[in-house]
Specification:
The chain contains 13 helices and eleven strands. The chain is α/β, with parallel strands linked by helices. β9, α11 and β10 form a beta-alpha-beta unit. It starts with 6 loop residues before the first helix and ends with a helix. The model has no long low-confidence stretch (mean pLDDT about 85).
Amino acid sequence: MPFDLPAPFIRKRIESGKVVAFLGAGASLGARNPAAQVWNSADADLLPTATELSEYLAKPIRFPAHENDKELTKVAKYFELMTSRADLEEELRGVFARPARHSAIHEYLANNPAPLLIITTNYDNLIEQALAARGREFDVVVHLTSITLKRVSNFAVADSLLWRPHNEAPRFATDDDLARIDLSKRFVVYKMHGSVDRDKPDHDSYVITEDDYVDFLTRMTSQSASAIPSIVAQHIAQRALLFLGYGLRDWNLRVLLTQIDRLNRRDKTSWAVQVNPSELEMELWKKRSVQIFDMRLDEFVEEMKKAEV
């Protein structure tokens, strides 16, 4: 059974900066109900679900009709094989570089009194838009795929990071570089699966095909110190985790959470907000000492606002 929401306690932890927020695909949908409102490429201010993006990519390449499995990683790989990586990234840029609306959860986090570490596996920059709209100081750290690195650099290190310090030019970063970030003074948005870059298309980076995920998971399961930057690992270990808009049906996400679980102490309770979690998902969250709340993200935001601390 999903837990009852201890709203005052969670709000207090968030407002004191003692929570690491993880934004999944559901965070980018806002209040949109995909079952009632179907996305299409003409929806300039809306973003697709993974299923909708898969259908969008499958159509122009005539993805084989006899293939019942249209999982996004598989369709994206087929698109890349039938066209090119450049064509795939051009299609993705057309979807994620648009001026979509940030949602209530983005606004709520951006208004937080204390800076937060926000980790996302989304390609969009909605959380950055919300932070900028409120004049908050924030750095962005993006994991670049080896494909992006070969395009923009003279070297190709699969776990290299692009750091965009607040109001400064982007630069490649080492673990020591990132250690200088003062998380008590500014937000940090850590983008694990890459990101669209509105200003520099060459910096677009997407972990989306099957091969991309293999490379990513190899990085995550290696013993490399740079697999997760130290500053990020330290905060994951020291703070409660709040998963917003995630589902645990995807195997790649479960592997990722296994790595995160190794960093986070078991004596800390963490939380997840998800609509209609399955029994399997509830068991998977429970095994990671995560309390799950069955509610929409906009409902969660309203409960946080009403809570007395």
